[in-house]
Amino acid sequence: MLKFFSVVFCFIVSFDVLADEPITPLVPIEGLSPDKVKLGQQLFNDNRLSKDNSISCASCHLLSKHGADNRTRSIGINGSQGIIKTPTVYNSAFNFVQFWDGRSRTLNQQVSGPIHNPIEMGSHWLEVIDKLSADPAVAVQFKTLYDDGLTAANIADAITTFERSLITLNSRFDRWLEGDEKALSANEKQGYQLFKAFGCISCHQGRNVGGNMYAYMGTMGDYFSDRGQPITVADYGRFNVTGVEDDKFLFKVPSLRLVALQRYFFHDASERRLVSAIEVMAKYQLGRNINEQDAELIAAFLRSLVGQHPLLEPQ
Ligand code: HEC
Ligand code: HEC
Questions:
Q1: Superfamily designation of domain 34-164
Q2: Backbone phi, then psi, for 135, in 5-degree steps?
Q3: DSSP per residue, 30-64
Q4: Does the Cβ of 92 fall within 6 Å of ligand 1?
Q5: Where does the record locate the signal sequence feature (predicted)?
Q6: Distances from the Cα of 172 to the Cαs of 31, 266, 304, in angstroms?
Q7: pLDDT at position 315, please?
Q8: Bridge partners, 251 (sequence order)
Q9: How far, in Å, from the CA of 64 to the mean position of ligand 2?
């Protein structure tokens, strides 16, 4: 009888773990053409996408690191400095919109952004197509894979297909979600409980632990006046897209999947330590003080979210 109950009990417990958690495991995107992924990867690394052939997507989105650079602001062509911290391209296929302010609805739409941005690649589709069609090998690749050959839409399609393959699978946290109790340490489990108990989960949730809603930076306090740095255009967030006053300081909630690998935190790169970033979040997003010990436990949980990808340095 006891045995019967414990079997039922175990079943309920493990069922609960899988069914009720507000974070779900990352899954690969099926059905991607391997040839398009390969072409996309090649284009992602191709300097000819920039005006002076000096940088590629990969110059700012370092795939062996966390899919972004380790700078406070990115550096584009001619050494021009960006206005906002570079986010990761890993798992971006699962974000509901692209960019901090959500100005691209899809990955596909996103691609022409950096190509045309004067402080990023400073180029133009026509220039890019001119340069690439002068390369017979590339032209042939496009002809083989796309009926209409080398076009802007097909370049964007190949790059996007590659980006959709950039999912970091098999994190220890996901293995735990899938029922492997030993995948997490006691501290990491406690960190996850705190992440939920403090309310971080109300914004950072779903399979990307973020990336599925907008939220104000400073929901419970005036982050920007306390920061002590003058407000910049980038700080206005979603307002820059909609022009609606209420959208000032509204941002896409970033995914925390690879946050533990970052060197700087927040759109303005204002924090250098993960634990300090967690303290800022508790204070300004939740109106709560968090002690260092609890912040450390949450940081331990965040480190368990880092998954694997063949292009990402093993952790
Ligand atoms: C000069 C550095 C730089 C280059 C080159 C660059 N990016 Fe970015 N990327 C950024 C920055 C900075 C942002 C954030 C901009 C913003 O949100 O306003 C970004 C955002 C993104 C995002 C959105 C991610 C998210 O979660 O919102 C994707 C996807 C992306 N870039 C892909 C690319 C691709 C593809 C290329 C090449 C065609 C490229 N990037 C070239 C710096 C760069
Ligand atoms: C009200 C929604 C909300 C809540 C609650 C919230 N966050 Fe955030 N989080 C955000 C937003 C929005 C950003 C981006 C802010 C920015 O860059 O200015 C962010 C950014 C972060 C970052 C930095 C990500 C990066 O890429 O630089 C970390 C780490 C983080 N949150 C952790 C937490 C933790 C831990 C908690 C709980 C203590 C929490 N957040 C609670 C909305 C929220």
A1: Cytochrome c-like domain (1.10.760.10)
A2: -105, 105
A3: TT--HHHHHHHHHHHT-GGGSTTS---HHHHS-TT
A4: yes
A5: 1-19
A6: 25, 24, 5
A7: 78
A8: 215
A9: 24
Per-residue pLDDT reduced to its tens digit, 166-183? 999 999 999 999 999 999
Residue 215 CA: nearest ligand 2 atom is 12
Q: Which atom of ligand 2 is least distant from the CA of 195?
A: 37
Ligand index nearest the alpha carbon of residue 211: 1
Please give the distance, rounded to the nearest whole angstrom, from the Cα atom of residue 203 to the centre of ligand 2. 8
**Averaged pLDDT of the chain:** 94
Over residues 226-264, the pLDDT tens digits come to 999 999 999 999 999 999 999 999 999 999 999 999 999
The dihedral over CA atoms of 67, 71, 77, 83, expressed in degrees to the nearest 10, equals: 100
Give the pLDDT of residue 20.
84
pLDDT, residue 275, reads 98
- Residue 256 Cβ < 6 Å to ligand 1: no
Cα 59 to averaged position of ligand 1 atoms, centre (Å): 10
296 is catalytic: no
Tell me which amino acid residue 168 is: T
Q: Which of 21, 30, 120, 178 is catalytic?
A: 120
**Residue spans per domain, the chain:** 34-164, 172-303
Name the closest ligand to CA 202. 2
- What pLDDT score was predicted for residue 13? 44
CATH class (in words) of the domain with range 172-303: mainly alpha
**Residues of the chain with pLDDT > 70: what percent?**
94
